[in-house]
Amino acid sequence: MTASSFSVPAFVDAERSRDWVREALRRIEADFQRSADTHLIPLALPGFDGIDVYLKDESSHPTGSLKHRLARSLFLYALCNGWLREGSTVVESSSGSTAVSEAYFARLLGLPFVAVMPATVSAEKIRAIEFQGGRCHLVQDPTRIYAESQRLAAELGGHYMDQFTYAERATDWRGNNNIAESIFVQMARERHPVPRWIVCSAGTGGTLATMGRFVRYGRHQTGVCGADAERSVFFDYYLSGDASLRIEQGSRIEGIGRPRVEASFLPRAIDAMVKLPDLWSIAAMQALSARLGRPVGASTGTNLLAALACARQMRQRGERGSIVTLLCDGGERYRHSYHDDHWLQAQGLVCDAEAQALAALMQEGRWPEELLTSWRLAGALLEEGAPAGGMRT
């Protein structure tokens, strides 16, 4: 048999592979074409006169969260890099929402999907992943999800999507209707069209990186503020630059906060950070849910608190302007956790008094002293003369 006789089957196989990738890309782009952009909702805050706050409602995506954008970008990135092939098993480490969205895109392409998640993830998210055709692989130790994802991908001959590494580079941060560009387009006819602040919590850090890069690329006079959960290293990494930071506990605010520094978190791309106690994040979730008339997730509560920190500084300086933050997902996924009184009681997170205090803050501008002494600020939000990571009240 001559060497040339091997070339025809190899060529045919390569062409079939390229045809599959082209069809996969077409399906994802067609899905995007069928989708409208998410809404930008004005949030009335009478206690902050002259400061307009908006919620970018990412819960209206087909998979119900901000992570729909990330999953789409990750699949496009993997396809164009040649990492996915017909029949590949897609594996992802996730606390839930990214896995729901990736399961959706895997099913769109006819690929098996396995989500490696902490065992504490909400039952609603597990059902949502399974509804999309995915399979859940639960891990007791949340710090083990990375290694277990790599092991499973190797065992199954599949591809580990690895959102925590690729989130910041998979998205076209210069435009292409990314979330930052969408915000600026939607704000164009508002009273203060260029936001003074854009606020976003950190899960991978990819959305924060996109915000920071786009703001700089567009030469906007906008600060980008990161919000961090209680059990997370991002804030301390922002202060110290020590990428070796680790903690043994997973975040109690699903979707945000990490026990290690992730490659997609770029501290120099943002201007400020706020670290919020979990109790107050859940209280903010409750107060905001009541104000909107529909439930939201706990990470949205974290975002709201950080946005209020930005509003506080603006009011102290006599500034008027706008702040945009994210409504990451709806509260329906957390009916048996954050929105369940018995669950909150068991976790020591009952926060009725804190939620009432935050409702009063939004309505009347009266700050709860307990919040001011328990959060931590850094970067452009830090008051002159205040110690690093703290704030004078």
TrEMBL record:
<keyword id="KW-0963">Cytoplasm</keyword>
<dbReference type="Pfam" id="PF00291">
    <property type="entry name" value="PALP"/>
</dbReference>
<dbReference type="InterPro" id="IPR047586">
    <property type="entry name" value="Cds1"/>
</dbReference>
<feature type="modified residue" description="N6-(pyridoxal phosphate)lysine">
    <location>
        <position position="67"/>
    </location>
</feature>
<dbReference type="InterPro" id="IPR050214">
    <property type="entry name" value="Cys_Synth/Cystath_Beta-Synth"/>
</dbReference>
<dbReference type="InterPro" id="IPR001926">
    <property type="entry name" value="TrpB-like_PALP"/>
</dbReference>
<comment type="similarity">
    <text>Belongs to the cysteine synthase/cystathionine beta-synthase family. Cds1 subfamily.</text>
</comment>
<dbReference type="InterPro" id="IPR036052">
    <property type="entry name" value="TrpB-like_PALP_sf"/>
</dbReference>
<keyword id="KW-0456">Lyase</keyword>
<protein>
    <recommendedName>
        <fullName>L-cysteine desulfhydrase Cds1</fullName>
        <ecNumber>4.4.1.1</ecNumber>
    </recommendedName>
</protein>
<feature type="domain" description="Tryptophan synthase beta chain-like PALP">
    <location>
        <begin position="42"/>
        <end position="329"/>
    </location>
</feature>
<comment type="function">
    <text>A cysteine desulfhydrase that generates hydrogen sulfide, H(2)S. The H(2)S produced by this enzyme may modulate central metabolism.</text>
</comment>
<keyword id="KW-0663">Pyridoxal phosphate</keyword>
